[in-house]
Amino acid sequence: MVRIIVALVVLVAIVQGLSADLVPEGILPLALVVLGLVYAAIAIDAEDATAYLVVALAVGAASGADVLNNIHAIGGHLDSIVDQVSTALYAGVITVLVKRTLNRLKG
User: Fold this and answer.
1) CB distance 42 to 23 below 8 Å
2) Does residue 107 have a pLDDT over 90?
3) Measured over all CA atoms, what is the biggest interatomic distance in the chain, rounded to whole angstroms?
4) How many domains does the chain have?
5) Is 67 exposed, middle or buried (0-12, 13-18, 19+ CB in 10 A)?
6) Which domain holds residue 8?
7) What average pLDDT does the segment 46-67 reach?
């Protein structure tokens, strides 16, 4: 199940990154958020999520810095795809937050 979610995130990120207007009504960004939430709920242990959180921060920072724009001809497209992947990763961070909060409330 986790591999399917990761494959869907990659596919949706590529489609949204390369042709944002291909699917109307903002369905693809919503799909990325939902997939990120579900992935983290299934695959991430909220009490030991350090590696996931570091990756999410690093990808978000690389996305925000537009580092791939320095590659001529395709860099802008690659940056657009990384932007979409960071959306899914950041959505997963929210799941980790909720899971950890619930764990703390349960005791």
Assistant:
1) no
2) no
3) 53
4) 1
5) middle
6) 2-106
7) 94
